[in-house]
Design brief:
Zeta_carotene_desat/Oxidored; alpha+beta; FAD/NAD-bd_sf; ten-stranded mixed sheet; 38% helix; FAD/NAD(P)-binding domain; transmembrane; FAD/NAD(P)-binding domain-containing protein; 4 domains
């Protein structure tokens, strides 16, 4: 048994150089240690900050805080950061694995005799889960990667969508097991793709993805005609959605999409299901669009239909049609290594179990007023604690609860089945352990005077859904014809309900009201007066329903949010299989290494490399409001802490004012890596604002390309908007209120985020040009090639007039359609048309 003094810890050398400050161990002449002799006030002690969790959010906030220096960036390092991780390695890379080469030479070297003499040598690492991103939707992530020297590359946006049928005659298939994956691999039939696509390069910076057409057969033209009609419907609805989403975005009215004030009232956000149904989008389009975004959000169709339409359509407006999927070239291990270089202390295998307030005033002044107790019983004092975990995990820790509810076990592993060990991968510790998630926090069972009651109540409003990611080599997860294999292969069960009625009670109530209105119309037998009277009543019902829409996710008796559901154990979800070889050339081509998210049937046991469970935050109207509520709470915390330091101010602070939250769930939009980065930056700003005596800032000798310097425009915009909001609150003028509109984080985000992205990228482009010109001027006998920013070129023609972009889009589509038609003609006569397309 380990004692309290045996808590595993990893400490970086104090003189490690960070990317932002290459001389952090060498204070300048203006540091606090060389202050003027006339200074009477001693410099404040260095702040101590604990970061719980080492995913991207935790690594980013720890990295940025460790990059801050005293005296406006001229002094020593300003913050001591300690990172706590419950696993044996950093969380962002914890589930990734190295691929074991199956060639004969490597097998013999490893002491195995089962090597394949015909297999090429491969080496590489598989990121689990897949870490793809679109630069258009992830501007701050891109800025961070560029700043820490992480390279990333484009991948072709090719996909194949197909159905999977199950043998309903199987004794395992019954109504009671309808929503459980089939355990018998032989009962699965993979159908041909109903939609597949390839990318076509139409300029140096633009590619367009278009669907493939089947070969035309004169004897049986029906399949070709049916497919062509389906593509027409998809293209028609796709253009409609693009036009709507881009127009509303450029007008700053994303949150008004699909909303009729007289119908919805009270600002309720229209769900994606309501948008698709009321917009009369075709089934062909929905069968393509919904599974695609269910894969983006890694959730079931029920949860997907709960998403507010503005959240999904904002992604559409920013990423389509010219967005390029991108991957980190060397994998996320490089990201974790670069971000953790300047973090002085990392505690591995250490779970934080409790947060309390320091009882000893002297100890609080010397070490910090908030005490963190870990799983080894060790007590450590800090000035601030940042939770970079899931919302439900943070709530459990604040409540003093231990994680005790295990996630479902993987469908199968070779060891459990007693089969021969897979030759294609190496299982690591996370594959043999059951991941744990905290129980639902019983908020109502806690006293209302609990120091963290308000935070826990807000955190309980963020729903999660469990998902499984399996790495394997079973090609039966792909279409039967290898010519139809694409980068992303999306499957759904034929009995799946893509427009599944969500858990949202508001939608159910609206449907009930509509049925009631229809019945009343028949009863009235054409009486206009009666119909008007009933319609008025229906309007009242809608108004009442909307007033209760602030909490569409049903709270259980304990006060926690809707219990976590499991997408992987339901047929009503999309299964995405990514061919890893297409984005990692080091994996070769002899064996297809696959990663499947939300498998709706099990792979062959001998092909399984690894299996891991995750919990993903999903979005509903209540969680959108919870984002704003959480942000407001943290802003108020910073204001109280700042006011408490003013002489003569009697503002009281509590231990809860020193607890902060970062993560994908804590930022508007789809919970993705972008939210991790921005929420980390915002918490860093709050800590800086409530610590004026330290005069924290980026090092004055930090490179021009450092994240903190390139992030300055975004921070300046936030400061200006905060001043505008404060001014509006003071004046209370109606005209000013109408001009500034909604100043909540979600309102500001959906109104201005895309404009901010353009502005930031243009600033970066100017900085890059200036840097390259400086290098050219100082280079001796060497040529420096000017590197264009891919993201800027992708949106360089964006203006406030959406019609300019639509015209440019149509022009490029004409060029792509020409290539598309040539590929069809070439492949119809039996030749390979891939040279015309980037398949």
């Amino acid at each position: 048994m380990s004692t309290a003094t045996e808590a595993p810890i990893h400490t970086h050398l104090s003189d490690d150089r960070s990317f932002f400050d290459t001389h952090s161990a060498q204070p300048t002449m203006t540091s606090a240690t060389t202050a003027s002799p006339t200074t009477t006030t001693p410099p404040p002690r260095k702040l101590r900050v604990a970061v719980v969790g080492s995913g991207l959010a935790g690594l980013t906030v720890a990295h940025l805080l460790s990059s801050l220096h005293l005296e406006d960036g001229q002094g020593d390092q300003g913050i001591d950061v300690e990172l706590f991780e419950k696993a044996h390695k950093l969380g962002m890379d914890a589930a990734s694995l190295s691929v074991t080469c199956p060639c004969q030479k490597c097998a013999l070297a490893a002491g195995r005799s089962d090597g394949d003499p015909n297999h090429e040598h491969v080496e590489g690492r598989m990121d689990v889960p897949m870490r793809s991103f679109f630069a258009e939707y992830y501007p701050n992530l891109v800025r961070l990667y560029r700043a820490i020297g992480v390279k990333f590359h484009d991948a072709d946006n090719t996909l194949a969508c197909f159905d999977v049928t199950f043998d309903t005659q199987s004794e395992e298939f019954s109504p009671s097991t309808k929503y459980r994956p089939s355990r018998n691999h032989r009962n699965v039939n993979v159908e041909s793709p109903y939609l597949s696509s390839r990318s076509y390069k139409v300029s140096s910076d633009h590619t367009i993805t278009l669907p493939d057409l089947p070969s035309l057969s004169v004897l049986n033209p029906y399949p070709f005609g049916r497919r062509l009609l389906g593509y027409y419907r998809i293209a028609r609805d796709y253009v409609r959605m693009l036009a709507v989403s881009k127009e509303f975005m450029t007008q700053g009215r994303m949150m008004d999409i699909g909303k009729d004030p007289s119908e919805w009232g009270n600002g309720r956000q229209v769900s994606l299901r309501e948008f698709l149904v009321n917009g009369q989008y075709s089934h062909d389009f929905s069968a393509f669009f919904v599974p695609l975004f269910a894969c983006v959000c890694t959730c079931s169709f029920e949860r997907m239909m709960e998403f507010p339409a503005c959240v999904v359509l904002e992604y559409v407006a920013r990423c389509m049609p010219f967005g390029r999927m991108q991957f980190v070239s060397s994998g996320v291990r490089e990201v974790t290594e670069n971000l953790s270089k300047n973090i002085s202390t990392i505690h591995y295998n250490t779970m934080v179990e409790k947060i309390i307030e320091a009882q000893d005033a002297e100890e609080a002044n010397e070490k910090g007023p908030i005490v963190l107790i870990d799983s080894f019983g060790v007590r450590r004092s800090f000035d601030h604690v940042i939770f970079a975990t899931q919302a439900n995990q943070a709530a459990a820790t604040l409540a003093g609860q231990r994680a005790s509810k295990p996630l479902p076990k993987p469908f199968v592993t070779s060891r459990e089945a007693g089969d021969v060990e897979s030759n294609y991968g190496r299982r690591e510790e996370h594959d043999l352990a059951d991941p744990e998630t905290p129980q639902d926090v019983k908020v109502d069972a806690l006293a209302s005077d609990h120091p963290f009651y308000a935070q826990m109540k807000t955190l309980a409003k963020f729903p999660y859904e469990r998902t499984q990611v399996v790495c394997h080599t079973d090609t039966s997860f792909l279409p039967k014809d290898p010519a139809s294999w694409r980068l992303l292969n999306i499957a759904k069960a034929t009995n799946a309900d893509i427009l599944a009625t969500p858990f949202d009670e508001v939608t159910a109530e609206l449907a009930k009201t509509k049925r009631r209105a229809s019945t009343d119309t028949l009863v009235s037998n054409g009486d206009d007066s009666g119909l008007r009277k009933r319609n008025t009543g229906a309007g009242d019902a809608n108004s009442t329903t909307s007033s209760g829409a602030s909490s569409p996710t049903t709270l259980n008796n304990s006060g926690s949010s809707t219990p976590v559901s499991t997408a992987s154990q339901s047929y009503n979800s999309a299964m995405a299989t990514h061919i890893m070889n297409n984005t990692a050339s080091s994996l070769g081509s002899t064996t297809k290494f696959l990663q499947t998210t939300n498998p709706i049937f099990q792979p062959k046991p001998e092909t399984v490399i690894s299996s891991a469970w995750f919990e993903r935050a999903v979005v509903n109207p209540e969680s959108m409001k919870a984002v704003d509520e959480l942000s407001q709470q943290m802003d108020e915390q910073a204001e109280r802490l700042l006011a408490g330091q003013q002489p003569g101010n009697n503002t009281s602070t509590s231990v809860s004012d020193r607890v902060w939250f970062v993560g994908s769930y804590a930022y508007p939009g789809i919970p993705l890596l972008e939210g991790c980065v921005v929420s980390a930056v915002q918490v860093m700003e709050r800590i800086i604002s409530c610590s004026p005596a330290h005069r924290l800032n980026a090092a004055v000798n930090a490179p021009e390309g450092s994240f903190l310097r390139r992030d300055a425009p975004m921070r300046e915009r936030r400061r200006r908007r905060k001043e505008e909001q404060d001014l509006m609150a003071k004046l209370g003028g109606q005209d000013l209120e109408e001009q500034l509109l909604d100043q909540s984080p979600s309102g500001v985000y959906f109104r201005t985020a895309w404009k901010d992205t353009l502005e930031d990228e243009q600033i970066w482009e100017q900085q890059e040009k200036a840097r390259l010109e400086k290098e050219k001027a100082t280079a001796v006998g060497g040529e420096v090639s000017e590197k264009k920013g891919h993201f800027l070129s992708a949106v360089g023609l964006w203006t406030s007039n959406v019609y300019v972009e639509v015209a440019w889009m149509l022009l490029l589509y004409l060029l792509a359609i020409f290539q598309w038609w040539m590929v069809f003609l070439i492949e119809s006569v039996g030749f390979d048309g891939s040279r015309w397309a980037m398949a």
